[in-house]
Design goal:
The protein contains eight helices and ten strands. By secondary structure, the chain is α/β, with parallel strands linked by helices. The strands form two sheets. It has a five-stranded mixed sheet. The radius of gyration is 17 Å and the shape is globular. It starts with a strand and ends in a 5-residue tail after the last helix.
């Protein structure tokens, strides 16, 4: 059984379609998305429509939750920089009615039972939606999470860092960011989880896409040019 793992698409539809061309959705039993589907790249409606059309099992990320606050007429303190806040406000204003409704219904986490395994889908970690887990996170922290989550497999995003670690019998997987990597490699990141009878396999992918399409649309919408530079370099610059 093969499952496509996505996370942190961040409104980057060109990256998402490149992943879909390389790894066609129809070849997978299901697709799991760990959140942050909106904000920073300027294609939120296309991304949310794709997730619905392909029946992706999705949860909310921190950027999605801030967009929801705006949709509800509220605000937020962070990020405070104008060049960051405008990315949230423009995305919230751009969403169609159907996509607003879809986003408002998404859960913050999800637990699945697949092939006799408990699979937890979280944005940050099983303990906190905003916790960053990296390949370099101390093993003691993974041991704490393994003890409290009651999962055989934990799939997370948020750190934009691809890894697979097996600790205390729990497989911790991060597919990396499909739409906004920070490691100096701008290619889209994702992973394929293969469930076998007695073990699992995880393969990470880095897939090139047309970054110029993102940069041109950012410019067309008169959004801060620093984001175009970030997408070209595959780095966080602000």
């Amino acid at each position: 059984m093969n499952i496509l793992l996505l996370s942190d698409i961040h409104g980057n539809y060109p990256a998402l379609t490149a992943v879909a061309e390389k790894l066609p959705p129809k070849k997978f039993a299901c697709i799991i998305n760990c959140g942050d589907s909106t904000v920073y790249a300027p294609f939120p409606n296309q991304v949310l429509h794709w997730l619905q059309e392909n029946e992706v099992i999705s949860i909310l990320g921190n950027t999605d939750r801030k967009v929801i606050k705006l949709l509800k007429g509220k605000s937020f303190k962070k990020p405070s920089k104008p060049e960051k806040r405008i990315m949230y406000t423009t995305m919230a204003e751009a969403l169609t009615r159907a996509n607003k409704k879809y986003l408002l219904k998404l859960p913050k986490k999800k637990l699945l039972h697949i092939r006799k395994r408990n699979v937890g889908i979280f944005h940050g970690s099983p303990k906190h939606a905003n916790e960053f887990l990296f390949a370099s996170t101390p093993q003691t922290r993974f041991l704490e999470l393994a003890a409290c989550c009651n999962c055989n497999i934990v799939i997370t995003g948020h750190s934009h860092t691809p890894y697979h670690k097996k600790i205390a019998g729990v497989d911790f997987i991060n597919p990396g960011s499909t739409g906004r990597m920070f490691d100096g490699d701008p290619r889209a990141s994702c992973a394929v989880l293969t469930l076998k009878k007695k073990r699992i396999e995880v393969r990470h992918y880095r897939i090139p896409y047309c970054i110029d399409d993102v940069v041109r649309e950012l410019a067309r919408q008169q959004l801060p040019p620093i984001y175009g530079e970030m997408y070209r370099k595959g780095k966080k610059l602000n």
